[in-house]
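Support request, please re-run this one:
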Amino acid sequence: MPLKITDLPFNRFIGIDKRGENVGLTKHDRLLNHVGSLHAAALYGLAEAATGDWIIEHLMAHYPDALALAREGNIKYKRPAAEDCHAVVDVDQMAVEKCLSMLQRRGQGTLMISVQILSGDTLIATAAFKWWFSLK
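Re-run finished. Output below.
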């Protein structure tokens, strides 16, 4: 059975769920910060899970035995998340082609994936994660 982003223990722990092509996070008391909004760490986890979900659904289809690891990530918080959130991924297709070419030639490659965290239509945060891939 193929890996699902919602199967990963940490993602289950914080409550990551699939919402169509996106992933989401429901506001729970255990995820709140001192001002009653979703904690920054939970939002970071949502952003990372969204990029991982994209990798599972798009790159791992080409290379199901590849190892994929988040190598670095950054996030910029715009405003507090008072309600449920979802993440929308944006991937440069040229960067994907370059990554696939590197995997074929060298057996490893990297890919930067951008993501927006939204609550409804309101932008909560922007993030980017660099993923590293290696053929086993």
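The radius of gyration is 15 Å. Helices lie at 9-14, 40-58, 93-106.
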